[in-house]
């Protein structure tokens, strides 16, 4: 992202934001409520059109492209609130996650990979998604995103609404996705304590601009982090 400006209506939330996402990393985006984190993710994924600036993916401009085009190009997005079909079974949710996969023969392999990563989903394959716990629904949402083999996985607050023990489990799952599949991950997260240890690099956004980019380790200092916020 270079000089990226975006917002809602005439109101700008991002103001000339510059940020890089490197292949194979877990990039953690931190910031106070209203800093522009969700706006950044929605603009990257095509849910919002940039007002200015550029978004390049593998050397090609994708700013303003549709979410469907981004999915076909290997970019997946898991929004806040789990993003599943609550009235459908776990298995059907996962199968729908592969809607953009043109090679149907790959679906069993992808499904098995998701079941290996999240055994609880295999155990509850015929359960209605909306009846599972919050942590299980988050795993299902991530599993759906993995069903079309994304190269980039964008996560918006994956721990929101989860009990502390479930947050740790979800964070470990995110690390496993990165390590096992080589998936590049961009994650917005408020749980600093549990998300910093899995991050390769961290960015702090304040009022729509990047104020810190680099090693996550200094941000474990609460005083330093609050100064950036």
TrEMBL record:
GO molecular function, one term: ATP binding
UniProt keyword annotation of NADP present: no
InterPro entries: AAA+_ATPase, ABC_transporter-like_ATP-bd, ABC_transporter-like_CS, BCAA_Transport_ATP-bd_LivF, P-loop_NTPase
Alphabetically ordered keywords of this record: Amino-acid transport, ATP-binding, Nucleotide-binding, Transport
Domain of life of the organism encoding this protein: Bacteria
Residues in ABC transporter domain copies: 1-228
A Pfam family hit: ABC_tran
Family that this chain belongs to: Belongs to the ABC transporter superfamily.
Protein name: ABC transporter ATP-binding protein
């Amino acid at each position: 992202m270079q000089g990226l400006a975006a917002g809602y209506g005439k109101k700008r939330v991002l103001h000339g934001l510059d940020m890089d996402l490197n292949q194979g990393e877990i990039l953690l985006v931190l910031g106070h409520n209203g800093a522009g984190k969700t706006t950044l993710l929605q603009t990257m994924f095509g849910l919002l059109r940039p007002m200015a600036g550029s978004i390049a993916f593998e050397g090609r401009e994708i700013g303003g492209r549709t979410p469907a085009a981004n999915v076909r190009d290997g970019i997946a997005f898991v929004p806040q609130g789990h993003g599943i079909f609550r009235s459908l079974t776990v298995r059907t949710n996962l199968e729908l996650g592969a809607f953009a996969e043109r090679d149907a023969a790959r679906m069993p392999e992808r499904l098995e990979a998701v079941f290996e990563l999240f055994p609880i989903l295999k155990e509850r394959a015929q359960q209605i998604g909306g009846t599972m716990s919050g942590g299980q629904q988050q795993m299902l949402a991530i599993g759906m995103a993995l069903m079309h083999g994304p190269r980039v996985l964008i996560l918006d607050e994956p721990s929101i609404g989860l009990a502390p023990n479930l947050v740790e489990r979800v964070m470990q799952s995110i690390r496993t996705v990165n390590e096992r599949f080589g998936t590049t991950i961009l994650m917005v997260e408020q749980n600093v304590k549990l998300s910093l240890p899995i991050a390769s690099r961290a960015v702090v956004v304040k009022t729509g601009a990047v104020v810190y980019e680099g090693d996550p380790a200094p941000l474990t200092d609460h005083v330093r982090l609050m100064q950036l916020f």
